[in-house]
């Protein structure tokens, strides 16, 4: 065939070149922070961005009982401050907020690849700090769960479950990294961080639920009279709205039924949020439990790559079961024995 007689290939138009150029810019953008896949950068931007935004929006809550409108005292659910202002609950909320907000800020940087690859010492120190802060925050959460958003049974059970899941996941991640089982360290740390992110999804579900229940039907909850009284500046107004509450020896006694509704009365707002909190926690927890497992199932190549790295490092250290020195299904369960890449050739 005469090549010279074949029709000349038309030159690419500017519109055809544009996607290639924009794709190159996009690749340079996520590669600059160490990501090798664009979808990982997008997921990081969404979830890490949500965590960072939530933490920055709540930093003012570190001013636990200040007079400023941005403090936790004035930003918490109506009625909660009555319990948190003194005693063991004040210690608990201080420990929880003082630890979990810094932990949330620091954990974002643990998932930036360039820090893990180029600044390993910073990654390790930051990891130890996060572990310590999360444990302190979990202790504080257990101290206050009896009064958090009404302290219902489902709320207490949800808090205990979340504390158990995060603590267990972090401990397993810590054990695996000490055994140089990097693939399992990645998996368990991702689970721990996803579980901790439940509180963000929880807030969204809780507010939506509170708004819906305020409009579609009549929902009610019970609240202690003394908690409601703390929300009123006038004893006369409180007595007029809740004559069922008894005043004995200068203290308010008993419980009353409060309508759960987003309205002008703060106790109704508090009842609405408290009524939705337990349900929102369990629903958010299920979403995060399933979501992280789906992500791990869809990224087996990264897990396999890290297991190969684990094998090589464990071989250098003389481990008895290189590639399976940590908590792996072939070492602790009945899975087929894992073989390194060089053994499969």
From TrEMBL:
Residue ranges spanning the membrane: these are 38-61, 88-113, 125-144, 156-177, 189-212, 279-298
For this UniProt record, the keywords arranged alphabetically read as follows:
Membrane, Transmembrane, Transmembrane helix
One Pfam family matching this protein? DUF2306
Q: Specify the domain of life of the species encoding this protein.
A: Eukaryota
**What's the name of the protein?**
DUF2306 domain-containing protein
